[in-house]
Every structure is written in structure tokens, then in C-alpha cells.
Design a protein that fits this description.
single chain, 254 residues, alpha/beta, Rossmann fold, 9 helices, disordered N terminus
């Protein structure tokens, strides 16, 4: 019995043998393996950072392009406005002070007074006041100006024109009827460029002399603000007149 017990495995011995026979997992240290994960993470981080930098650079270029696209037209607009003001038409240096007729565009009492002064000084044979309101009588105009004698002999009134193109059309017909070739055009300084543009379109073969009148009103508003508002508004109208079709108002032909 004792020999059999020596030959066979006791239960305790078998269990111990089985435990000893299990393979032991060993950690194999590969040289450099501990750094490989960190290096891969670092490369991934650098790649993402590079992508973000490129995207940020593209967005910055896009913003700069948009800003330039917006600022360039504004700079062009205000550069043109500066030229518009600086080159506002004035009487030429060689103007002798004489013309066949005088045309004044309504819009302020200063314009009519200045035109009547030119007529009184014999700088034109007749005066046309164009754009008068239909309800304003000739007598009322003469009373307001204090020049009833001039109105009775040498002043014509147009009540048809309602805008600058209409003024040009009526002035052209008036000049044709009176055989006038040289005209003095009287209007506010800020309005002169557009007036001459429309008049020259309607009367390309006549001599037009600008006679600008300062239109800055005496108001409680700071003069600089009034000036800027008037000139900027007129500059926009002038640009629209430049790009508009050359066909003029047909009011005078109806």
C-alpha cells in the first residue's frame, strides 16, 4: 500500500504539480518600447497643431481679403469725392463776364439774387429762371427780389422742369428760341458739376460758363456737418447721373 502511494500522485501533489506547470507570463522589455507610445502621441499632437496653424493662416488671409474688398471701394469713393469737391466748376480765368443769356436753377434765394445781379450788370441780355413752382407767380418773384423792372423786361420763367435734367431741357429750348450761344449757368456750388453735366448733354455746341453760388445756410447745425451732408448727397447724385443713360428728360418736348 505504501508503494502504491509512492507511485501515484496524491491529490495535494497533483494540484501543486498543475500549478507549477502553468506558464508564467513574463514581461518582455523591448528596448525603446516605453518611449514609442509617447513619441507617437507627440507626432500626432504636432500634426494636429500644424493643421490648425494652416487653417488659421487661411482664415487670416480670407479675412484680410474680405477687408481689402470692402475698404478698396470705400477708399475709391472718398478719393473721388475729394476730387469732386476740389474740382468743382468755377468761371474760367479768361471769362470776359459777358454772355448772351443767363440761366438760374431754382433751389434757394441766393441763386436768383446772384442771377439778377448778373443781369443788372449787363452780363447777359435775358435771364431764365427754370424750375419755378407752378403756384409761384412772376409778380411774387419780382416782389421777393425787389427787381420788378427787370422782371418786366428781361426775365423769363419756366414752370415745367422738375429736376436738373428738366432744367437742361428747358434751358436748351429757351436758348434755341432766343438764338443764344453763350450761357451763364447759375446754381449752388455743390450742384454745379451735375448741372453742367446735364446742360452739356443737352447743349453740346453751346458755351456754358459756371457761376457757382455758396449755399451754406446759416443754421444752428455746425457748418461742417451741413457742408458734408450737402456735398456727399450731391456726389452720389452726380455718380448716378454719370452712369445713367444719356437720354434726357422729354418734358420740354411733350
Amino acid at each position: 500500500m505504501s508503494e502504491i502511494a509512492k507511485i501515484g500522485w496524491t491529490r495535494r501533489q497533483a494540484a501543486q504539480h498543475n500549478r507549477d506547470a502553468q506558464p508564467t507570463a513574463q514581461r518582455v522589455n523591448v528596448p525603446g518600447s516605453a518611449m514609442t507610445g509617447r513619441e507617437n502621441g507627440s507626432k500626432t499632437s504636432r500634426g494636429a497643431s500644424s493643421l490648425l496653424e494652416r487653417a488659421s493662416g487661411r482664415w487670416r488671409l480670407l479675412r484680410q481679403g474680405l477687408a481689402a474688398a470692402l475698404l478698396a471701394p470705400m477708399a475709391l469713393f472718398f478719393a473721388g469725392f475729394a476730387l469732386f469737391v476740389l474740382r468743382s466748376p468755377t468761371p474760367p480765368a479768361d471769362f470776359a463776364g459777358q454772355a448772351d443769356g443767363i440761366v438760374v436753377l431754382t433751389g434757394g434765394p441766393q441763386r436768383i439774387n446772384e442771377a439778377l445781379e448778373l443781369l443788372r450788370n449787363h452780363q447777359g441780355r435775358r435771364l431764365l429762371i427754370t424750375g419755378v413752382h407752378p403756384h409761384t407767380s412772376e409778380r411774387r418773384l419780382s416782389q421777393l427780389s425787389g427787381e420788378e423792372s427787370l422782371f418786366s423786361c428781361c426775365v423769363d420763367i419756366d414752370r415745367i422742369a422738375a429736376d436738373t435734367r428738366g432744367n437742361a431741357a428747358e434751358a436748351s429750348r429757351w436758348a434755341e428760341q432766343n438764338h443764344f450761344e453763350r450761357l451763364i449757368v447759375v446754381t449752388s456750388d455743390y450742384h454745379m458739376a451735375r448741372a453742367l453735366l446735364e446742360f452739356s448733354r443737352r447743349m453740346p455746341n453751346r458755351t456754358l460758363t459756371p457761376w457757382p453760388v455758396s449755399a451754406l445756410p446759416e443754421l444752428s447745425i455746425p457748418p461742417a456737418l451741413v457742408w458734408a451732408r450737402m456735398w456727399l448727397a450731391e456726389y452720389v447724385k452726380y455718380l448716378l447721373a454719370v452712369v445713367a443713360p444719356a437720354a434726357t428728360t422729354r418734358q420740354a418736348d411733350i
